[in-house]
Structure formats: C-alpha cells, structure tokens
C-alpha cells in the first residue's frame, strides 16, 4: 500500500483533476438535470466503476496497447464516438424519460443509467492513457503489489471524485426542480442531455492522443 504522504499528494492531485470541469462532470450534471439526483449518483457510480476497469487494465499491461499499437487506440476511440452518438439519437426519443411537470416522471432504470456511465468511461481511451501517465508517479516500486497500490489510488480518486461531483449532482437536481415550471418544453432536459452526448462524441473524435 502507498505511504500516507504519497496518498495525500495523490489526493491533492485528484482534487484538482476532478474539480476541473470535464466530460465526466458534464455528463453527471446533465443526467442530474434530466433524470434527478439518484440518476446523477448512478451515473457517477458507472464512471467510477469504469475507472477501476481502466486501472485493472493498466495493472495487467493491457492499456499499453494504446501506446504500442496505434490502431487499438483508434478502434476504441471511434467505438466510443459511435456509442455516444447513438445515445444522443436515442435520448430525446425515449418516451420513458419524457419530462412532464404535470405527471409522475417515469425514470430510466438504474441499470441503464449505470451502464451508460460505465460504457462512456470505458470507451474513452484517453482515460486509459491518463491512468498510465498519472498513477505510476505515485507507485512505490519496492512496496506491496502493483495491483493493490493502483486499486488503492483508484479508490482515493473515486472518493475525491464523489465529493466533488456530489455538489454538481445536488446543483443539477435543484435546477431540475426549477424546470418543473417549464411546461412549454417538456423534453428540454432530454435534449440537453442529448446535446452533451453529441458534444462528448465530437470531443473524442476531434481530440488527439495527447
């Protein structure tokens, strides 16, 4: 297990990284606005699980494929783009997620919300490169097993991320409550979420490996 001083440094770095607005925060905020507080937390749970998947892949050496085999990076990148565009297309057309202030909201299932957060994170190859770039700087070569150290760091990262994004979720759900007065645009939250998905797809498509 990493030393306490190492964990403090990593926690500070994790706070700066998670507090900086990015795709994950935008997705969590949009989910909170469109589906409510519980959906925001479930989206974050999926993203956090995706982080563990990237860490396990890095510990097993699988993520190094992105550095040594460029085509592997491109395959995952374009698969991620296609998935995000599919979500952007499907979200405003889903009758179960229609927003209506005059009736009880039919929420998306927790499994679906969790899966979308998980898949969005896993299909982002930049997350794998991020783990490869950051985590080794806080690993003790002569310490416990590499796998355990990386999982501990991932837990710290997810813990800090939870604290930061909980604020975003609460703000998003508050905005959602205010939108209940908007009766002329019953699907406005869904269109906002679809726009986020499309924006993330464009960001992933136009971005570089660095």
Major sheet attributes: none
Contiguous low-pLDDT stretches (5 residues minimum) are 96-105
- The total beta strand count reads 0
Helix-strand category: mainly alpha
Output the number of helix runs: 9
Range of strand content: under 5%
The outline comes out as globular
* Cα-atom radius of gyration: 18 Å
- Helix percent reads over 70%
H/E series, N to C?
HHHHHHHHH
Mean pLDDT: 79
Question: End-to-end span in angstroms?
Answer: 30 Å
What does this protein look like?
By secondary structure, the chain is an all-alpha fold. Helices cover 73% and strands 0% of the residues. Helix 2 crosses helix 8 (146-179) and helix 5 (70-90) packs antiparallel against helix 9. The longest helix has 34 residues, at 146-179. It is globular, with a radius of gyration of 18 Å. It starts with a helix and ends with a helix. Mean pLDDT is 79; it is low at 96-105.
Concise structural overview:
This protein is mainly α.
Please outline the helices and strands.
Elements: H1 4-19, H2 23-35, H3 37-59, H4 65-68, H5 70-90, H6 110-122, H7 125-134, H8 146-179, H9 188-206
Helix pairs in contact: 1-8, 2-3, 2-8, 2-9, 3-6, 3-7, 3-8, 5-6, 5-9
């Amino acid at each position: 297990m990493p030393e306490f001083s190492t964990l403090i440094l990593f926690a500070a770095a994790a706070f700066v990284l998670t507090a900086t607005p990015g795709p994950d925060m935008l997705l969590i905020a949009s989910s909170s606005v469109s589906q409510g507080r519980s959906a925001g937390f479930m989206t974050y749970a999926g993203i956090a699980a995706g982080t563990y998947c990237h860490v396990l892949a890095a510990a097993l050496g699988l993520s190094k494929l992105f550095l040594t085999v460029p085509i592997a990076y491109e395959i995952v990148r374009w698969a991620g783009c296609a998935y995000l565009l599919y979500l952007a297309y499907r979200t405003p057309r889903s009758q179960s997620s229609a927003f209506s202030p005059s009736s009880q909201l039919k929420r998306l299932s927790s499994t679906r919300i969790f899966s979308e957060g998980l898949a969005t994170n896993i299909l982002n190859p930049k997350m794998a490169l991020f783990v490869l770039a950051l985590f080794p700087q806080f690993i003790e070569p002569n310490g416990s097993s590499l796998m355990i150290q990386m999982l501990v760091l991932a837990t710290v990262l997810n813990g800090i991320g939870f604290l930061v994004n909980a604020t975003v979720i609460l703000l998003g759900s508050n905005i959602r409550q205010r939108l209940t007065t908007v009766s002329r645009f019953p699907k406005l939250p869904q269109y906002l979420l679809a726009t986020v998905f499309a924006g993330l797809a464009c960001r992933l498509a136009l971005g570089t490996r660095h």
